[in-house]
Amino acid sequence: MTEKEEIRRRRTFAVISHPDAGKTTLTEKLLLFGGAIHVAGAVKSNKIRKTATSDWMEIEKQRGISVATSVMGFEYNDHKINILDTPGHQDFAEDTYRTLTAVDSVIVVVDVAKGVETQTRKLMEVCRMRHTPVMIFVNKLDREGRDPFEILDELEEELQITVRPLSWPIDMGERFKGVYNLYRDSLDLYQPSKQRVTESIRLDVNGPELEQHIGGALAKRLRDDLELITGVYPAFDREEYLAGRLAPVFFGSALNNFGVKELLDCFIEIAPSPRPVQAIERTVDPYEEEFSGFIFKIHANMDPNHRSRIAFLKVCSGKFERNVNYRHARLDRTMRFSSPTAFMAQKKEILDEAFAGDIVGLPDNGNFKIGDTLTSGELLHFKGLPSFSPEMFKYIENADPMKAKQLHKGVEQLMDEGVAQLFTNQFNGRKVIGTVGQLQFEVIEYRLLHEYGAQCRWEPINLYKACWIESDDAAQLEEFKQRKHQYMALDKEGRDVFLAESNYILMMAQQDFKNIRFHFNSEF
Ligand code: G4P
């Protein structure tokens, strides 16, 4: 197979959802189809239980599991599928956002009873920013839920994307009969099976057989629904989907392995192969000969005796090879890797080569930061994901004067890994850590102690948002910085950030300084 063919057959994506919608279950069923696992239950849920108790052993255990399953590669119908897993707990949402920088498309799972939930909404915002093609799987049709048309309206409104059903449910809950596959024009009858991959029965929706299978009333309703769908929704247009403007919708039950194969079969057909990636210097095409890639995730080894980390590299173009010299753009030095790992389902193995679209695990002892670029030689910097304003802020202080250095190093490295965001207040020099949730503070404190031997203390700071500011009016910008000097900070890249204490203060600032632009994320 040529290099181009290798790249063309790759599908790298993430399954995302609000916790409990069925992401883990769906992922597992996809692996089942790929033959990557043989029985259901083999993939442990990597979600940190939502009880929000900080049971450390539990979190560590789960982190351990999530490393093994954070990328799952398998072969299916001549395609190489790479599923990137994302943490379920919302306090680690930043991890998920970063993972989304490494995928070429996503599958969003929505619970038919609950519809669009907070986390789904936030994740979709990131997909929209990046024009990531999105497919939606409405799950749990074996349970009572909302009317499918109502769900479609909600998806369209809340996720701000045009939707197009490609399968349609026939009743739900205990009366759930199956789905009509609009993409293939066939009927798949529901046969619940948690363990096996079942073949579905196919027939023509316009033939008399339909009545035999689902009865006269449901047959009529299905035909009416289908007519309405064709009348109301635009025909499926793959270009629109690839541009991230139209989301095909499927219905099914992941737990019962129903509707999953249809989703997967359609997915490999329409989902994009690796797409061009934007670097600051230029757009990089996956089919270019020269290798390039970037680090989107760093995972620390939780064993304190082995401080090594794994850096996850997404190959953006060409072919990555073991033991070949590559250029680390930020450090401007050459690096080669003798034991890069591939992620095939649950095992890790040394790989010799990987192609655009693939994820490679690189053993790292501190050379990588999130967003670092590796190339065959050209100086490139891939654009990462912007930082978003954190939700919670605390001052971090050193609680053990003898260990100041360790604390400094620990904080630096944890921030490089993307555990949280660091802002340095320009007025008093104090360091502010910003997170999405409380759990991240606990993770930082725990890891500083166990991995770096450093102790920290948290002190409250009352902040509403961190805003990245910029202006074409240098004088006004300077005036603003002086007026707000107590609240000016630098982020880790040295960019100006205004730490607003309240929404009111922010609004006043926006009013008083019309020539300054306030951004809630660092990419503007
Ligand atoms: P998540 O990763 O998105 O957080 O969700 P996960 O797959 O863990 O699923 C959440 C719960 O929903 C699980 O039940 C799972 O069994 C159930 N579930 C997933 N798909 C379906 C479906 O199609 N139908 C029904 N009825 N339930 C479904 P749980 O009780 O929380 O966990 P478990 O003990 O079953 O693992």
Characterization of this structure:
It contains 14 helices and 30 strands. With 524 residues, it is α+β, with helices and mostly antiparallel strands. The chain has 3 domains: 268 residues, P-loop containing nucleotide triphosphate hydrolases (Rossmann fold, 3-Layer(aba) Sandwich); 99 residues, 3-Layer(aba) Sandwich (Rossmann fold); 128 residues, Peptide chain release factor 3, domain III (Alpha-Beta Plaits), CATH 3.30.70. The longest helix is centred in the middle third of the chain and has 17 residues. The site of guanosine-5',3'-tetraphosphate has 19 residues, from helix 2. The site of guanosine-5',3'-tetraphosphate (G4P) has 19 residues, from helix 2.
Brief overview, please?
By secondary structure, this protein is an alpha+beta fold. The chain contains 14 helices and 30 strands. The strands form 7 sheets. An 8-stranded antiparallel β-sheet has the order 26-23-25-24-28-29-27-30.
What characteristics describe this protein?
3 domains; 524 residues; Alpha-Beta Plaits; binds guanosine-5',3'-tetraphosphate; Rossmann fold; single chain; 29% helix; 7-stranded mixed β-sheet; 8-stranded antiparallel β-sheet; globular; alpha+beta
Low-confidence sequence ranges: 44-57
Overall pLDDT confidence = 86
The hetero molecules present are: guanosine-5',3'-tetraphosphate
Q: How would a textbook summarize the main sheet? A: 8 strands, antiparallel
**In what range is the share of β-strand residues?**
25-35%
Rounded to the nearest angstrom, the distance between the terminal CA atoms is 41 Å
Global structural class: alpha+beta
Helicity range: 25-40%
Number of strands: 30
* CATH first level of the largest domain: Alpha Beta
Please list the strands of the largest sheet in the order they lie side by side.
26-23-25-24-28-29-27-30
Number of domains: 3
Total of DSSP H or I helical runs spanning 4+ residues = 14
Q: Any idea what the shape is?
A: globular
Radius of gyration: 25 Å
The CATH architecture of the largest domain would be: 3-Layer(aba) Sandwich
